[in-house]
Amino acid sequence: MKNIAQYAFLPVLTILFLGAETAAAHDPVFGLGPHTLYKGGVEIHAGGHREKSGDESETEAELQFKYGLTGDWVAGIGIPYVRSGDVDDRWGSTNLSTKYRFWRHDIFGVQESMAVLGKVMLDDGEGLHGVEPDGNDYLVGLTYGYEGRKWYRWASVRHRFNADTTTGAERPNVWLVDLVGGIRLAPTEYHEPDWVWMLELNGELIERVSQGTGSAEKQLGGNQWFLSPGLMWTYRNFAIKAGVQFPLFDDLSQDQEKGDYRALVELEWHL
């Protein structure tokens, strides 16, 4: 089986040499912002996400393409490839997404905006942790962003509707809440490399459900919160984002997996 890194970074090497002239705003590392594209703009993401829970670990590489339908409306597709532990490689669920910015306010050096979003995780591959959903998963959300010359802030709330498994087991739905602050320590020009440092508070409010019966019954759900330092480095139309999520607080049911840490690295181009 080919190494997962090939799927994440071979496309990256290919598009690294493509040029572009238009810079654009960006979203935070783990949370979500209202950033869209100009009409006809293309955005390409290639990244890797690693998650560890107890003795289990999972690494996901994903390639995403987004297209600006208008200056306020973007649509995209994501193709993930997943490795569980050191042996189990598989294609994940293809996802289709869209985001619409319905409000924008510009003043000198500052842009504020809000957007609604939706995503469909298709039933064409295995989900995370080897779960096989019996149908599509759906996500809807609302996000706000403030981007200035020095200070950044984002807030978002999303709700994920999960289909049951192919064995009929109920999968809990999840609320996702993100609060993010960012700072640019020194102002830069477009042609200069730029750093933005971020700190995120990410919450997962998981519906409490029971799976199985008798001695095989499992209690799932509960709440968990992560504190997530991250950074974004940009140079013209190219960006690298990276961050780590550390558990801050949890109130999980006895059989719900508790995350030890999560890490994300993402490369992003605006064409």
What's the topology here?
Layout: H1 4-15, E1 42-53, E2 56-68, E3 73-84, E4 88-91, E5 95-107, E6 110-121, E7 137-148, E8 151-161, E9 174-183, E10 194-211, E11 218-235, E12 238-252, E13 261-270
Antiparallel strand pairs: 1-2, 1-13, 2-3, 3-4, 3-5, 5-6, 6-7, 7-8, 8-9, 9-10, 10-11, 11-12, 12-13
List keywords for this structure.
271 residues; mainly beta; Porin; 12-stranded antiparallel β-barrel; globular
- The rounded distance between the terminal residues' Cα atoms is 32 Å
- Write down the Rg: 19 Å
How many separate domains? Answer: 1
What is the architecture at the second tier of CATH?
Beta Barrel
- Percent helix, as a range, is under 10%
Number of strands: 13
Main sheet, how many strands, which sense, barrel? 12 strands, antiparallel, barrel
- Give the overall form: globular
CATH topology: Porin
What is the residue-mean pLDDT, rounded to a whole number?
87
What percentage of amino acids are in beta strands? over 45%
Distinct helical segment count: 1
Give an overview in words.
The chain is mostly beta strands and 271 residues long. It has a single domain (4-270), classed as Beta Barrel (Porin). Helix content is 4%, strand content 59%. It has one helix and 13 strands. The protein has a twelve-stranded antiparallel beta barrel. The longest helix has 12 residues, at 4-15. It is globular, with a radius of gyration of 19 Å. The chain starts with a helix and ends with a strand. Residues 4-24 have low confidence and may be disordered.
